[in-house]
Amino acid sequence: MTDAKxxxxxxxxxxxxxxxxxAAVALLLDLPTAKRDAEQLGRSxxxxxxxxxxxxxxxxxxxxxxATRRTPASGDRAALHDLHIAAKDVxxxxxxxxxxxxxxxxxxxxEAAPLFQEVGxxxxxxxxxxxxxxxxxxxxxxxxxxxxxxxxxKAHEAMHYRDIPLPMVQFxxxxxxxxxxxxxxxxxxxxxxxxxxxxxxxxxxxATCCFDICHGLEFEDHTVATGTALLKMLGADQCTLMQGDxxxxxxxxxxxxxxxxxxxxxxxxxxxxxxxxxxxARRGTILLAPSGLMTPNPExxxxxxxxxxxxxxxxxxxxxxxLHDEARHIGPCIPGHNPDHVSDCGxxxxxxxxxxxxxxxx
Length: 362
Ligand SMILES: C[S@@+](CC[C@H](N)C(=O)[O-])C[C@H]1O[C@@H](n2cnc3c(N)ncnc32)[C@H](O)[C@@H]1O
Fold this sequence. Notes:
The chain contains 12 helices and 7 strands.
């Protein structure tokens, strides 16, 4: 067998080469799909495949030899142990190769997927999960706002809607699409979400699956109180419900994604509220309005639909088109409610990070 120190040096060199190849692939994948050089990306990926193969073969040989080698001369013992541990470490990281390879190959020849999935024919499949989920969402809503059916006189006079929840499935489609648009924009973290007229905050809670900081603005004190108690009980630290009036709120400019589902009954009031949001929102803010915007010709206010009821502020038509194309090439994975902790993944790190930014989770 080659001497342990020589093998250790060779292992370090091949690991270094593989890490460099992986980092090169990651750098190319970090570009918007329209700007990627497919040939260069393909070449870079093939180089990574070759260096992976060389590294894997070396690790396998070292593993076999260090496991079977009989008592070495005492001077070699430490070097052999060191080599064995190093090979073990690389071997365990390389187990992720197949998963990374699948995801990289999907991105080398990316397919555009619409921001909203086609809805299947109702009643064509057994939807037990759908029924159970609805039962649970309704239960959570009832806990978050036990007074959902009562309304303060003040809110009634101001022509507010009560806390009537948008079906969660519709909301999830919206935030999934918004998250892909955020990734396409390469928005900086933390991504901040606001539900205007949040009721007891069940949508605020659900939004944490996509966004880092989630706020709700709600007029009714009692709803803010019960919703806040529930969120606290659930340990939802990234959620805050604020008591306030959407018609007077001054901080719409603090958010990356703003959602509102018919807080106000009168169309004219909705238009006033939208005008307030349009005037404060930063360029590139995503607006989610599941009933559609009430403002006629929102383009005149610089607000355009990216797809369906997902809108963006401050971009011209061509910019929105580019954003939409890019978002359609973002993968389908969202962080979820239990994102895996950021662990040291060695040479995979740049690739793991760029895959996340491109909507693919390992
Ligand atoms: C139709 S519900 C929507 C609840 C939740 N956002 C959802 O999508 O399931 C409208 C909520 O907006 C609140 N609301 C109405 N007018 C408001 C205002 N001017 N400012 C803040 N909240 C308001 C109501 O109290 C109610 O909880």
